[in-house]
Amino acid sequence: MIALLLLACTADDPQTEDSFLEDTGTVDATLPPMPPAFSGDACPTMAGDELTFESAGVERTVKMLWPADPNGAPLWFNWHWLGGSASQAIQYQDLQDIADLGYIVVVPESRDDELFEWGFPKGVDDSIDLTLFDDLLGCMIEQHNIDRKRVYSTGMSAGGLWTTNLAMNRSEYLAAAAPLSGGTEPFQAYDEPVRDIPVMLTWGGEDDLFQGLSFQDATFALQASLENDGHWVLMCEHDLGHTLPPVNLDHVIDFFAAHEYGEELPWQDELPSDLWSGCSFDAGPQ
Known about the structure:
alpha/beta; Rossmann fold; two-stranded antiparallel ribbon; 7 helices
């Protein structure tokens, strides 16, 4: 069932001086900057299972999953695939389990007028979806005092490509990113992240294809660009084609849990012995 659904998948705004929180006059280099001010009049109330509000002048819907105590919790963004929905991502990726681990899980719905669900293709204006990310992040900081050092993004296929976009264009806010069947060429151009960001790339081998376009090629292209620019990249390959990996999000959970913004990278020299065996420093084009 999952494979059938996912076979339908395809594949810097300047900071303002406005802040959701009072400026204390101090700067902590280990903390990310505050996101831009909310794009509308005021943040909506970030509560409940589903929220509809206006961001960048566009009506958006977001599903949310909550830990027992959301105050100060880490924040997990999850982006759905082409032809999918937030509800499907929650169901097929077992996202309630993520919330039960203590994360606030934010699962946006794409706009109806987006060709590939999110604003990643070449030549497409990505500012509306980037603003959605900024608005959600800022409102969660304002209302739930989320752990700004533990903000993460992942997604499958179109959601993986959008996570790639965020890793490139919102690295100043993310502790780590984990695209599942994401990447750059042939789907989108590479933009160098403004800060070093650890990235885990997962793909389904040479059969990870959509309409003749290769997510393996896109993954390898992103790997090469990131490593050339000095970013740390972990490669995780399965042989199931264009679908979720056999461990679903287990390896992503391990990866995110180990990485905090501004802290020394814990896996630079050796991977944990209990990490999924599909992950390796040596994977990628030979």
